[in-house]
C-alpha cells in the first residue's frame, strides 16, 4: 500500500471503524474517515494525523443518498478513484426484547443502516472503485449474522436471538455474495468480516475483545492480494460459517 491508495471507512469516528481506519493508515493508505457528525469525524481524523498518518475527515451519513452522492463527487474530484471501501457503520437497536416483541419499525431502522446503507454507499462509490487497479470492498458483518452459529442452541450466539440485528447481518452476508458474484470478472474483491465480540458503544462495552482486535479481519480483507478470496465471510481466524 502507498499514500496513493485511497480508503474510505464508514462510521470511522469510533469503535471498530476507527481502528480499521488506523490499521489501513498504518499500511500507508490515505484514509477518508467517514462520520455522520462532522465534529466527531474531524476529531477522529486529527487523532490519526497526530500519529503521523494520512487521514481526512469525510462527512457521510450512510442512510442519506444526498450525503453519499456528495462524498462520491468529492472523492472523484480530489482523488479520481477509490481503492478500498469498508462498510463499517452499523447499529444495534434491540435491548433484549424477545423476537416476537420487536416492532417492525425497529427492523426498518436497523435495515436502513445495516443493509440499505451498505447498498447505497457501495452503489454510489462503485464507479470510483472500478477505476482503482485492485478494488476491495469489506462489509462489517457479525457472527450473529451466521445462521449456522445462531441456530445452534449449544453455541453462545444461539443465546442472542436479536431479530433485527442478526437478520440484518445475515442479509448483509447475502448482499456481500451478490456483489462478489457481479464483480467476479473484475479485480474487485468483496468480502464480509466478523470482528468478534468487541467492547464498543454498540453493546455497552460488554465484549471481551478490543476494537483494535475487531479491526484485524477487516484490514486483512481490505488489503488482500490479487489471489485472495472474494464472496467469503471471515474472522481473523479464517472462514466463518454462513
Ligand atoms: N462491537 C462488536 O462486538 C461487533 C461485533 C460484530 C459486528 N460488529 C459490527 O461492527 C461495526 C462497527 O460497530 P462498533 O461495535 O464499532 O459500533 P460503534 O462503536 O457503535 O460504532 C458504530 C459507528 O457507526 C456509525 N454510524 C451509525 N449509523 C451511521 C450512519 N447512518 N451513517 C454513518 N455512520 C453511522 C457511528 O457513528 P456515531 O458515532 O455518529 O453514532 C459509529 O461511528 C458495525 O457494523 C457492527 O454491527 C460489531
Automatic annotation (TrEMBL):
Keyword terms of this UniProt record: NADP, Oxidoreductase
Name one matching Pfam family. Answer: adh_short
Calcium recorded as keyword = no
Matches recorded under SUPFAM superfamilies? NAD(P)-binding Rossmann-fold domains
Gene3D superfamilies reported in the protein's UniProt record: NAD(P)-binding Rossmann-like Domain (3.40.50.720)
Q: What positions belong to coiled-coil segments?
A: none
Matching entries from CDD domains are given as:
carb_red_PTCR-like_SDR_c
Mind telling me which InterPro entries this protein's record contains?
A: CBR1-like, NAD(P)-bd_dom_sf, Sc_DH/Rdtase_CS, SDR_fam
Family assignment from sequence similarity:
Belongs to the short-chain dehydrogenases/reductases (SDR) family.
Q: What is this protein called?
A: SDR family oxidoreductase
Upper classification of the organism: Bacteria, Bacillati, Actinomycetota, Actinomycetes, Micromonosporales
